[in-house]
């Protein structure tokens, strides 16, 4: 047996393959993408939710946080064969978006049509900066000092 000095420049095939059985990427969790637009009177949030029924979707606003959650169960049985690969998502997901403080939960509206969830979030500006003019300072009236 011949001893050889290790060098970082030696081809990879000589380095022990410690991670051959290790999967480099864990399966990714399902994260529904959303689009958020700024409109003239608020915000519009759109999420593509194909295959969901309106009763499977829940939209809530609590403490300036918009939450979109949905649950789908795919418990269909096939008598003709078994799945070799199943990629259609079943389960639940949840997305949370921070809203500005000037949003009132009572004004938020949601609609679902053709697999697209649209949430309209109107806002009312609470107050904006106002310039306050500065006038000349007035001095208090002089009182006469008593003479002794």
User: What CATH architecture of the domain at 35-73 and 87-125 do you see?
Assistant: Sandwich
The CATH class of the domain at 35-73 and 87-125 = Mainly Beta
What does the largest sheet look like? 4 strands, antiparallel
Number of distinct helices = 0
Question: What percent of residues adopt helix (DSSP H or I)?
Answer: under 10%
Structural class: mainly beta
List the keywords.
single chain; 148 residues; mainly beta; Immunoglobulin-like; three-stranded antiparallel sheet; 7 strands
Q: How does this model look, in words?
A:
- With 148 residues, the protein is an all-beta fold.
- It has a domain at 35-73 and 87-125: Sandwich (Immunoglobulin-like).
- Helices cover 0% and strands 32% of the residues.
- The protein has a four-stranded antiparallel β-sheet, with no helix packed on it. A three-stranded antiparallel β-sheet has the order 3-4-5, with no helix packed on it.
- Strand 6 and strand 7 (116-122) form a beta hairpin.
- The chain starts with 33 loop residues before the first strand and ends in a 26-residue tail after the last strand.
Outline of the structure:
By secondary structure, this protein is mainly β. It has no helices and seven strands.
List the helices and strands and how they pair.
Elements lengths: L33 E6 L2 E7 L8 E6 L2 E8 L18 E8 L10 E5 L2 E7 L26
Antiparallel strand pairs: 1-2, 2-7, 3-4, 4-5, 6-7
């Amino acid at each position: 047996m011949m001893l050889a000095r290790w060098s970082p420049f030696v081809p990879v095939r000589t380095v022990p393959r410690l991670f051959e059985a290790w999967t480099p990427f864990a399966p990714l969790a399902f994260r529904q993408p959303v689009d958020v637009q700024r409109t003239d009177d608020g915000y519009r949030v759109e999420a593509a939710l194909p295959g969901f029924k309106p009763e499977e979707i829940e939209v809530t606003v609590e403490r300036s946080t918009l939450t979109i959650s949905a649950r789908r169960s795919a418990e269909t049985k096939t008598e003709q064969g078994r799945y070799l690969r199943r990629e259609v998502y079943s389960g639940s997901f949840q997305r949370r978006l921070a809203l500005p403080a000037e949003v009132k939960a009572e004004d938020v509206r949601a609609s679902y049509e053709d697999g697209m969830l649209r949430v309209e979030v109107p806002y009312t500006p609470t107050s904006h900066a106002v310039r306050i003019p500065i006038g000349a300072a007035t001095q208090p009236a002089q009182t006469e000092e008593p003479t002794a």
